[in-house]
Amino acid sequence: MNKIKIEQFGKDHWSLLAYVEYRAVNHNGLLDKSHLRIKNPVVANSTPYPIPAQEWKEEWGTRLFGYWNKDGTTNQSLKLGDHDDLDCLDDLEEAGLIKNFGTGLNPASKLTKFGAMVMSELNLHKQNGGNFSEFVNSIEKLSDDSETLANANPTEDLITEL
To answer: 97, 21 in Cβ contact below 8 A?
Structure first.
């Protein structure tokens, strides 16, 4: 599957990044599969409280930036029908925003320093009334973004301006 570039991220990628941040802060990075769009029914139903298997529908696919038009219509060519949240996690990692340390059956992720910087900008965007689907990242990728926040030095990594 082709990886989606950060410039193409839309509502599904950005809301998933926000969810990863929440789970990293409050649940040691362990993601709850019942909160994810997962196309593989075996993986989707491997939870302590399985929901009866549903066949994946293309309408649940990932919406990229520009999918929603200002007039309320949608650009269906910007929906990837076979792209679920596990694929989005791979995209977020490829962009340097997160580090996945779980498995497909037990997904777990943490933010990188770069991911935390982008999340700060995303949080400000949301606080100012913006939607995930409209967010455009303006933070430059760090040269060494492999370190997660768990190992970061808060004094050294202070963000003074967004």
So the answer is: no
Structural domain includes residue 89 = yes
CA angle 83, 11, 85 (to 5 degrees): 30
Summarize pLDDT for 59-87 with one digit per residue, the tens: 888 999 999 988 989 999 999 989 999 99
Q: What angle do CA 4, 57, 32 make, to 5 degrees?
A: 70
Domain of residue 66: give its range.
Answer: 6-151
CA distance linking residue 83 with residue 79, whole number of Å: 9
Q: What is the pLDDT of residues 123-145, one digit of tens each?
A: 999 999 999 999 999 988 766 54
158 domain residue, yes or no: no
Across 141-162, average pLDDT: 48
Check if the beta carbon of residue 63 is closer than 8 Å to that of residue 11: yes
* Bridge-based pairing state of the strands 62-63 and 79-80: antiparallel
Is the CB of residue 108 less than 8 Å from the CB of residue 98?
Answer: no
Which structure tokens are listed for 72? 């309320």
Residue pair 61/82 in contact by the 8 Å Cβ criterion: yes
